[in-house]
Specification:
single chain, 293 residues, alpha/beta, 48% helix
Amino acid sequence: MEQLAIRVQPGSLRERKESYEANKLVKRLRRQVGQAVADFDMIGDGDKVMVCVSGGKDSYALLDVLLHLRRHAPIRFDIVAVNLDQKQPGFPEHVLPEYLTALGVPFRIEEQDTYSIVKRVIPEGKTMCSLCSRLRRGVLYRVASELGATKIALGHHRDDILETFFLNLFYGGKLKAMPPRLVSDDGRHVVIRPLAYCKEQDLAAYAEQRQFPIIPCTLCGSQENLKRKEVKALMREWEKRHPGRIETMLTGLQNVRPSHLLDRTLFDFAAVKATGAVPAEGDRAFDPPGEFL
């Protein structure tokens, strides 16, 4: 009996450790979503939030965490899940309806053959993301109006935001990322990104933990020559060599100094005069070395 107890104990310790880490992950994601929602005033009392569920890990996690938030938040808001069935070949049409029905959340599956349009318009080998995204947004905005949704929640996370920043910087010549809250292209809706503080790695672990029925994308997700994948690999290498760099870059997006950039529409450089007084932000292009540690 004593030998048996010794054999069982390591497995028991491992299970307790795994349970502890899983609980930490759940709490971290819920805390980060709650913080983002509060920081950017994403959801208010009486809102009807349309959560866009694609069948990927991020949108599943978004819906899951928002449902928890709704149960425990001091405000009242409604949630409706919406999936756009783009008629991709082999798309398992039963998966999301079955999952959402079991979850007990109101939902709508909108069928629109955007797949054929994208495949017809975009030459083979060219990036399909831009057109696919535009078509998808148009349909979702229409559905939001029909449902009376006051907010449209998307599953973009911290890494998506930073990748977009570098894509715009490297290839678009702009300092621009994905804002956590913005007005839609048609000016009629407010779009929110409650996962703005969440790591993609955490969302992947959460999806595995919760056993979400993941549906792979056969459009953008299937392309290997995307610039976004190049940027993702670059960020992954940075984080590997310098752990914590990704979090520092996210902090940088929240700590902008227009006077130390070159955009004349954001800062009146012509008005800068030497008055003899110590300025709040003088000629310090680089902060002291200690501030980088």
